[in-house]
Amino acid sequence: DSGYPQELHLHTPYSTVSTGSAEEQYNAAHSRGRCVVERCNGVLKNRFRCLLKQALYARSCL
User: Fold this and answer.
1) Residues 7-62: pLDDT tens digits?
2) Contact of 19 with 26, CB cutoff 8 Å
3) DSSP string, the chain
4) CA 4 to CA 54: how far, in whole Å?
């Protein structure tokens, strides 16, 4: 996902892969997992409508 850089704690899909490679399999598994998470977020937002609104909070310390 181009929205997130590769980090030690965050694994993103490979940008270029060859057919049948381990990287392609990883990308497919990553995509399936992301779909599950997005579906769950949709279900939660439908059930708890307050999640559709922007959270208002003040940062007190860094």
Assistant:
1) 788 888 888 889 999 999 999 999 999 999 999 999 999 999 999 998 888 888 76
2) no
3) -TTS--BTTB----SS--TTSHHHHHHHHHHHHHHHHHHHHHHHHHHSGGGGSPPP------
4) 21
In angstroms, the CA 12 to CA 30 distance is 8
Q: What is the distance between the alpha carbons of residues 58 and 62, in angstroms, rounded to a whole number?
A: 11
- Each residue's pLDDT tens digit, 12-21: 888 888 999 9
pTM above 0.70, yes or no: no
In whole angstroms, how far apart are CA 13 and each of 33, 43, 58, 61?
12, 25, 33, 33
| Residue 33 C-alpha from the chain's centroid | 8
